[in-house]
Amino acid sequence: QVQLVESGGGLVQAGGSLRLSCAASGRTFSRYAMGWFRQAPGNEREFVALISSSGSNIYYAGAVKGRFTISRDNAKNTVYLQMNSLKPEDTAVYYCAAETSGGLFIKDYEYDYWGQGTQVTVSS
Predict the structure, then answer these.
(1) DSSP code at position 2
(2) Three-state helix/strand/coil letters over 53-98
């Protein structure tokens, strides 16, 4: 069983920055691919970014590429999402997820464990 706990969400003005963290339990974090997803009210959950188990492969959704940066620290069992140049349309609940086979997927149903989510609100 893997537990994921997100933190770092909040209210920020457009153009501002936030850094989300996702802390994972267990000793096998370094084997997992990790993803960030988000869900705005009335919308389906959507892919934001993913990082491979070693950190050598990274993918972003087009809407966030160039503004968001995903990273991980396997020694700390933590994955991060640095969000810069935030826009009102980035407002959503952000979730981290673990894919335990190590595969790189952008579909949420491929992920095995999920955090509870953290709210990000960007005001205009």
Answers:
(1) -
(2) CCCCCEEECCCCCCCEEEEEECCCCEEEEEECCCCHHHCEEEEEEE
DSSP class of 4 = E
DSSP 41: T
- Averaged pLDDT, 31-48: 97
Question: Strands 92-99 and 78-83: what pairing?
Answer: unpaired
Percent of the chain with pLDDT strictly greater than 70: 100
- The 10s digit of each residue's pLDDT in 51-66 is 999 999 999 999 999 9
Strand partners, 90: none
Provide the 3-class DSSP secondary structure of residue 46: strand
User: Would you call 75 exposed, middle or buried from its count of C-beta atoms within 10 A (0-12, 13-18, 19+)?
Assistant: exposed
Specify the pLDDT at position 27: 81
